[in-house]
Structure to design on (139 residues):
Protein backbone atom coordinates (compact mmCIF):
# COMPACT_ATOMS: atom_id res chain seq x y z
CA UNK A 1 0.00 0.00 0.00
CA UNK A 2 1.03 3.59 -0.48
CA UNK A 3 1.91 5.64 2.62
CA UNK A 4 3.15 9.08 3.58
CA UNK A 5 4.14 10.50 6.96
CA UNK A 6 4.45 13.83 8.71
CA UNK A 7 6.41 14.65 11.84
CA UNK A 8 5.50 17.25 14.44
CA UNK A 9 5.84 18.12 18.13
CA UNK A 10 2.94 18.35 20.55
CA UNK A 11 2.55 22.04 21.37
CA UNK A 12 1.16 23.63 24.53
CA UNK A 13 -1.90 24.89 22.65
CA UNK A 14 -2.72 21.27 21.67
CA UNK A 15 -3.20 20.19 25.31
CA UNK A 16 -6.37 19.70 27.31
CA UNK A 17 -6.76 20.32 31.08
CA UNK A 18 -5.19 16.88 31.76
CA UNK A 19 -2.03 18.09 29.97
CA UNK A 20 -2.32 15.58 27.14
CA UNK A 21 -3.16 16.29 23.52
CA UNK A 22 -6.87 17.13 23.23
CA UNK A 23 -8.65 14.32 21.37
CA UNK A 24 -9.98 16.58 18.62
CA UNK A 25 -6.48 17.60 17.53
CA UNK A 26 -5.81 14.10 16.21
CA UNK A 27 -8.27 14.76 13.37
CA UNK A 28 -6.15 17.75 12.33
CA UNK A 29 -3.07 15.51 12.31
CA UNK A 30 -4.92 12.93 10.21
CA UNK A 31 -5.74 15.67 7.71
CA UNK A 32 -2.11 16.77 7.50
CA UNK A 33 -0.94 13.19 6.89
CA UNK A 34 -3.75 12.61 4.37
CA UNK A 35 -2.64 15.72 2.45
CA UNK A 36 0.96 14.41 2.44
CA UNK A 37 -0.34 11.12 1.01
CA UNK A 38 -2.47 12.90 -1.61
CA UNK A 39 0.51 15.12 -2.53
CA UNK A 40 2.58 11.97 -3.03
CA UNK A 41 -0.14 10.66 -5.36
CA UNK A 42 -0.29 14.04 -7.12
CA UNK A 43 -4.04 14.10 -6.45
CA UNK A 44 -4.63 16.56 -3.64
CA UNK A 45 -7.62 18.89 -3.38
CA UNK A 46 -6.62 21.24 -6.27
CA UNK A 47 -6.19 18.26 -8.62
CA UNK A 48 -9.51 16.79 -7.45
CA UNK A 49 -11.22 20.10 -8.26
CA UNK A 50 -9.53 20.26 -11.67
CA UNK A 51 -10.76 16.70 -12.27
CA UNK A 52 -14.32 17.79 -11.41
CA UNK A 53 -14.70 15.87 -8.15
CA UNK A 54 -14.87 16.35 -4.41
CA UNK A 55 -14.09 13.72 -1.78
CA UNK A 56 -15.99 14.40 1.46
CA UNK A 57 -15.23 12.36 4.55
CA UNK A 58 -18.28 10.21 5.33
CA UNK A 59 -16.80 8.17 8.19
CA UNK A 60 -14.10 8.85 10.78
CA UNK A 61 -12.82 6.42 13.39
CA UNK A 62 -10.26 7.06 16.10
CA UNK A 63 -8.81 4.69 18.72
CA UNK A 64 -6.75 6.34 21.45
CA UNK A 65 -4.08 3.97 22.76
CA UNK A 66 -1.72 6.18 24.78
CA UNK A 67 -1.54 9.95 25.35
CA UNK A 68 0.63 12.36 23.42
CA UNK A 69 2.20 14.83 25.84
CA UNK A 70 3.71 18.30 25.59
CA UNK A 71 6.97 18.40 23.62
CA UNK A 72 6.66 14.82 22.39
CA UNK A 73 7.85 14.34 18.84
CA UNK A 74 5.30 12.29 16.92
CA UNK A 75 5.00 10.75 13.48
CA UNK A 76 1.63 10.42 11.74
CA UNK A 77 1.41 7.98 8.83
CA UNK A 78 -1.46 7.81 6.36
CA UNK A 79 -1.82 4.64 4.29
CA UNK A 80 -4.19 4.21 1.37
CA UNK A 81 -6.18 1.06 2.10
CA UNK A 82 -8.92 1.13 -0.58
CA UNK A 83 -9.57 3.24 -3.65
CA UNK A 84 -11.81 1.38 -6.12
CA UNK A 85 -15.27 2.49 -4.93
CA UNK A 86 -14.27 4.84 -2.14
CA UNK A 87 -11.06 6.10 -0.56
CA UNK A 88 -10.20 4.50 2.78
CA UNK A 89 -7.12 5.76 4.59
CA UNK A 90 -5.64 4.24 7.75
CA UNK A 91 -3.65 6.37 10.20
CA UNK A 92 -1.03 5.58 12.82
CA UNK A 93 0.28 8.11 15.34
CA UNK A 94 3.48 6.99 17.04
CA UNK A 95 6.06 8.41 19.41
CA UNK A 96 8.89 9.34 17.04
CA UNK A 97 11.62 8.31 19.48
CA UNK A 98 10.23 4.96 20.66
CA UNK A 99 7.87 4.01 17.81
CA UNK A 100 5.21 3.28 20.45
CA UNK A 101 1.69 3.53 19.05
CA UNK A 102 -0.33 6.40 20.47
CA UNK A 103 -3.42 6.50 18.27
CA UNK A 104 -4.83 4.81 15.21
CA UNK A 105 -7.68 5.83 12.97
CA UNK A 106 -9.38 5.63 9.64
CA UNK A 107 -11.30 7.90 7.30
CA UNK A 108 -13.60 6.93 4.46
CA UNK A 109 -14.22 9.40 1.66
CA UNK A 110 -16.55 9.06 -1.29
CA UNK A 111 -16.25 10.69 -4.68
CA UNK A 112 -18.90 13.22 -5.66
CA UNK A 113 -19.30 15.25 -8.84
CA UNK A 114 -18.23 18.79 -7.99
CA UNK A 115 -20.96 20.44 -10.06
CA UNK A 116 -23.92 18.36 -8.86
CA UNK A 117 -22.80 16.79 -5.58
CA UNK A 118 -23.97 13.40 -6.87
CA UNK A 119 -22.04 10.49 -5.42
CA UNK A 120 -20.02 8.45 -7.90
CA UNK A 121 -20.12 4.69 -7.43
CA UNK A 122 -16.63 4.22 -8.81
CA UNK A 123 -13.59 6.36 -8.30
CA UNK A 124 -12.44 8.27 -11.39
CA UNK A 125 -10.07 6.57 -13.83
CA UNK A 126 -7.67 9.50 -13.35
CA UNK A 127 -7.35 8.67 -9.66
CA UNK A 128 -6.81 4.97 -10.44
CA UNK A 129 -3.99 5.99 -12.77
CA UNK A 130 -2.34 8.12 -10.07
CA UNK A 131 -2.46 5.24 -7.58
CA UNK A 132 -1.21 2.69 -10.08
CA UNK A 133 1.64 5.04 -11.07
CA UNK A 134 2.85 4.73 -7.47
CA UNK A 135 2.82 0.96 -7.51
CA UNK A 136 -0.52 -0.19 -6.12
CA UNK A 137 -2.69 -2.19 -8.49
CA UNK A 138 -4.91 -4.24 -6.18
CA UNK A 139 -6.52 -2.07 -3.51
Amino acid sequence: MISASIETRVQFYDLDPMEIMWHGNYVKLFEEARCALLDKLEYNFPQMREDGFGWPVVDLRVKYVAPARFGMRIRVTATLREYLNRMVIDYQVVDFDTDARLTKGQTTMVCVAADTGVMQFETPASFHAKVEKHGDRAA
